From TrEMBL, chain A:
Pfam families per record: Spore_permease
Protein name per UniProt: GerAB/ArcD/ProY family transporter
Keywords from the UniProt entry: Germination, Membrane, Transmembrane, Transmembrane helix, Transport
Localization annotation: Membrane
Source taxonomy: Bacteria, Bacillati, Bacillota, Candidatus Fermentithermobacillia, Candidatus Fermentithermobacillales
Compositionally biased spans, kind Basic and acidic residues: 399-422
Disordered, as annotated region: 399-454
InterPro entries membership: Spore_GerAB
TrEMBL record, chain B:
GO CC annotation, single: membrane
Family as reported in the entry's similarity comment: Belongs to the GerABKC lipoprotein family.
Stated name of the protein: Ger(X)C family spore germination protein
Family annotation (NCBIfam families): spore_ger_x_C (TIGR02887)
Pfam families per UniProt: Spore_GerAC, Spore_GerAC_N
Residue segments, region Disordered: 213-242
Subcellular location: Membrane
GO biological process: spore germination
Record domain Spore germination GerAC-like C-terminal: where: 250-418
Entry coiled-coil feature ranges: none
Spore germination protein N-terminal domain sequence ranges: 25-204
Membrane topology summary: Lipid-anchor
Keywords assigned by UniProt, alphabetized: Germination, Lipoprotein, Membrane, Palmitate, Signal
Length: 454, 427
């Protein structure tokens, strides 16, 4: 399907003959994130759930060995991440949706892209709902839930509106604050810490722990973000290292949160807690003048949740804009915000939201982790890497054109002008075909809206 | 899209109006701060809840500043109500209080003995569920009714009874080890885990002062309250109101019986100290030991450092435990005039102290076994021998605890006998 271009019927017909332009092939411009920002964005996507019900739920299922089951899930997720990285590498510097289309074909590729977008929308909405519910239980009992959900969504959406670089900078800025406050809470509650509470070591049994680790690999499902972000990484070579670093850091935080909660609230007491880390913060007492430090923790909680939501929004917006070939995501922002607000406000209670979020992790999350390898294997069979390389070369060539612009509006007008003038110099299309070895139909099918950002 | 400056300003004003977090705020002067909360078994309803409300503007020390019977001190108001649950009773109290009654600053929750012996379940849920109740609130059991106890808690040293009670408990726990310091968090863990049982300080009212101790109050005239009413509650001219009113009796131990968690016994001060040692959270304290060669006379050994670890062996259903107790001590006083500090005397003292402590620990452990209450968290150590939770559950620790075979390896190191070799001699 050729993108709809403005102009008269005659102009569009001439443009169709002219072949794909850089404007059509290029991905939406969002700026770049460096390796550190990528690591932290993955960390937020994966580990913010420690502030929610994650420690309770995982302990409920695996008992005192919950931390082992998280380690098992992380190991499987690392394998899944490897699959995503292999597939990402095989599709060169194309965007995620063009890569999916190239790998699975137009229809299945779009369905897979939509699946990822829906996953991010659901996890964002339900995380926001759970966070807001927790804040109301633990801090603002009379505050209307809908307003709190709205505040988190507006804050997160504003960062997403400003773009990927703003989200990356927010992630970097808040990270030390969040780590320091988590450490303060954990150290402040040291008197409650008793390592004996982690026994019996194998929890509810080896089989149960293994099964739990396997079935809840989806807790790490947002790893598909590496495929979304690959077009925006300043140093694409660092993609693998940064994303593994993010996964490792997230695992450390998640395992530590489970251990801290389990060692302060022995099993099964810890399975009762709705927001276990919040309760730990409330239990901190360092004398008359140093108590109630949950006030500090709440800020941390808010920052982490808002950054998590904004990163997650960014993923959703990139996916949707590439799916719709809009080359801009801002018109979608209000719609996505309304959608997430609607989904977030829907669950009747925090518990319902938490359970739904858990179901999303277990079902869609597990599929998402496995999807990387599936895509890589299909791509291998379909020789996707060669096709992607040809498309990339074509885009690189188009970018060398002096009229090429990263600015969306200008690129679009230049594209139109070029198409007008192409009716006078029709040999360009022939050149493209000679270079890629494919007709325009094949390129359009595989690459519309894709390509590198650099 | 460029955002105009005026749009930024409007957005900022709206955010400033929305985000200060004042929604649902309550001003301090609109609140009645409950500093002590008492819970008893009710007569017409399930619970009798008593609150001691701090009156900060009156919380300044005054000569003979304590109140008397029935009303707490000048700095407090004591109110009670019956209901089926704690929040129900608090809302009833709210209806007669000029301000909203809040438990956000409750220091100690005092459980009446009758309720404690029946079932403490009605008490614990709200502390882990409701925002205004906190896990670091201390727990204590009052001999008799909590309402009677709370009405009489007073000390001239501290104008606010909760402050007195908290300091008293912390002080005795740290300096003598004869009372446990238990927060709601710790109580809840004992309450809801298989491998430990809860305990709490056991408090009573001190015996009335002897006649010779009576202190006449110079300013016993009733003070005028701010609203013009006379604050006469609890003031009786000539009565000794300077004497602290609380007696720390030891500790109350709980365990699960049927579906209820109930108080199943008490430990006296010495037994409480021994239990703290077995539990491993003893800080310091002292014992009186017989002087070797002169058993009629005693010496006071002050413990400075403590270490206690249980070594557990599980064979089938049998559990053996050896408690390894290590203490450093100094001889700080003797009642005899006939001793001369020597290595032999030191060795004799060590032997006597170790023997005495061993007997105390053994008898305390036997008492705990007889009540079936594992307040020393021995289960926490025993369950390390099990690989999985189902295995541990099947072991049925609450029943096995009664059959635990315990030995005690006590070592006391007396490293000083004070400034002198001999007591002063009258000449």
């Amino acid at each position: 399907m050729t993108p709809r271009l403005s102009g008269s019927k005659g102009t569009r017909a001439r443009a169709a003959k002219a072949g794909p332009s850089a404007y059509e092939l290029d991905v939406i411009k969002l700026g770049h994130v460096d390796s550190r920002q990528l690591t932290l964005m993955i960390l937020y996507l994966l580990a913010t759930k420690i502030f929610l019900m994650f420690p309770s739920f995982v302990t409920l299922r695996a008992g005192t060995a919950a931390w082992i089951s998280v380690l098992i899930s992380a190991s499987i997720a690392a394998f899944g991440l490897w699959g995503w990285l292999l597939w990402t590498r095989s599709t060169g510097n194309l965007g995620i949706i063009p890569s999916l289309r190239l790998t699975l074909g137009r229809v299945l590729g779009d369905i897979a892209g939509l699946f990822l977008a829906v996953y991010f929308i659901l996890t964002t909405s339900l995380s926001v709902r759970t966070f807001s519910g927790g804040a109301i239980i633990g801090l603002l009992q009379e505050f209307p839930l809908e307003i709190l959900i709205g505040i988190v969504i507006v804050a997160a959406m504003y960062a997403a509106w400003l773009g990927l670089e703003a989200v990356g900078r927010a992630a970097t800025f808040f990270f030390p604050l969040i780590v320091v406050s988590i450490l303060l809470v954990a150290l402040g509650a040291y008197r409650l810490f008793d390592i004996r509470h982690l026994y019996p070591l194998l929890g509810l049994g080896t089989g149960v722990v293994l099964k739990e680790g396997l079935t809840h690999t989806g807790l790490f499902a947002s790893l598909s973000a590496v495929a979304v972000l690959k077009s925006y990484v300043r140093e694409p070579r660092d993609l693998g290292r940064s994303s593994f670093k993010g996964l490792c850091l997230a695992t450390v935080f998640m395992v530590a949160s489970v251990i801290v909660v389990a060692s302060m609230f022995p099993y099964p007491e810890n399975t009762r807690q709705v927001i276990p880390l919040g309760i730990v913060a409330r239990a901190v007492y360092l004398g008359r003048f140093l108590q109630r430090i949950e006030a500090l923790f709440t800020f941390t909680w808010f920052f982490a949740s808002a950054v998590h939501a904004s990163v997650s929004y960014m993923m959703t917006l990139v996916l949707l804009s590439q799916l719709m070939n809009t080359h801009t995501y801002r018109p979608i922002v209000p719609a996505v915000a309304s959608l997430t607000f609607g989904i977030a406000a829907n669950p009747g209670s925090i518990l319902e939201a938490g359970r739904l979020l858990d179901s999303v992790h277990v079902t869609a999350g597990n599929i998402e982790v496995a999807l990387g390898w599936l895509l890589f294997l299909i791509g291998k069979l379909g020789n996707v890497s060669d096709k992607a390389a040809r498309v990339s070369r074509q885009l690189d060539r188009l970018k060398e054109d002096p009229s090429y612009s990263e600015d969306y509006t200008r690129a679009k007008s230049v594209d139109l002008q070029r198409r007008e003038s192409d009716t006078e110099t029709p040999n360009q299309r022939t050149q493209v075909n000679a270079e890629t070895g494919e007709g325009p139909k094949g390129i359009n099918e595989g690459n519309r809206g894709g390509g590198p950002s650099n | 899209m460029k955002v105009a400056r005026w749009q930024e300003v409007v957005a900022l004003v709206i955010l400033l109006a929305l985000l200060p977090g004042c929604y649902g705020r309550r001003e301090l002067e609109e609140l009645s701060l409950v500093s002590l909360l008492g819970v008893d078994k009710g007569q017409s309803e399930r619970l009798l809840v008593t609150v001691v409300i701090a009156v900060p503007r009156k919380a300044r020390p005054s000569p003979g500043g304590a109140g008397g019977e029935g009303g707490g001190t000048e700095a407090t108001v004591v109110l009670s109500a019956e209901a089926n649950d704690i929040l129900g009773a608090l809302s009833k109290i709210d209806r007669i209080s000029a301000r909203h009654v809040t438990t956000m600053h409750t220091q100690v929750v005092v459980i009446g003995e009758e309720l404690a012996r029946d079932n403490v379940a009605p008490l614990v849920d709200v502390f882990s569920r409701q925002l205004e109740f906190r896990h670091n609130t201390l727990v204590a059991v009052a001999k008799g009714k909590a309402v009677d106890f709370l009405k009489k808690v007073r000390s001239i040293e501290e104008p606010e009874p909760s402050s007195y009670l908290v300091k008293l408990l912390i002080n005795i726990h740290r300096e003598q080890g004869t009372v446990p310091l238990v927060t709601v968090h710790e109580f809840l863990i004992g309450y809801s885990t298989l491998e430990s049982d809860p305990w709490a300080p056991y408090l009573g009212l001190a015996a009335p002062a002897l006649e010779g101790e009576e202190v006449k109050r110079e300013q016993a005239g009733p003070e005028k309250a701010e609203d013009g009413r006379t604050d006469v509650e609890g003031k009786e001219q000539g009565k000794d109101t300077t004497r602290p009113s609380v007696a720390v009796l030891g500790s109350a131990v709980f365990r699960k019986v049927g579906d209820s968690q109930k108080m199943v016994g008490t430990l006296n001060s010495e037994e409480t100290m021994a239990t703290s040692m077995l539990k491993g959270d003893f800080i310091r304290g002292h014992v009186h030991v017989a002087i070797p060669g002169d058993p009629q006379e005693t010496g006071v050994l002050m413990f400075h450092h403590f270490s206690g670890t249980p070594k557990v062996r599980v064979e089938g259903n049998r559990v053996s435990v050896q408690f390894k107790i290590r203490l450093t001590a100094s001889l700080v006083e003797t009642s005899t005039r006939r001793i001369d500090v020597s290595p032999e005397l030191q060795r004799g003292l060590v032997y006597t102290a170790e023997d005495q402590l061993e007997r105390l620990l053994a008898s305390t452990f036997e008492k705990l076994k007889s009540t079936g209450a594992d307040v020393i968290d021995l289960g926490m150590t025993v369950h390390r021998s099990f690989r999985t939770w189902p295995e541990w559950q099947a072991f049925n620790w609450p029943e096995r605890f009664r059959d635990v075979n315990a030995t005690f390896d006590v070592k006391v190191h007396i490293f000083t006998s004070g400034f002198t070799f001999r007591p002063p001699e009258p000449r």
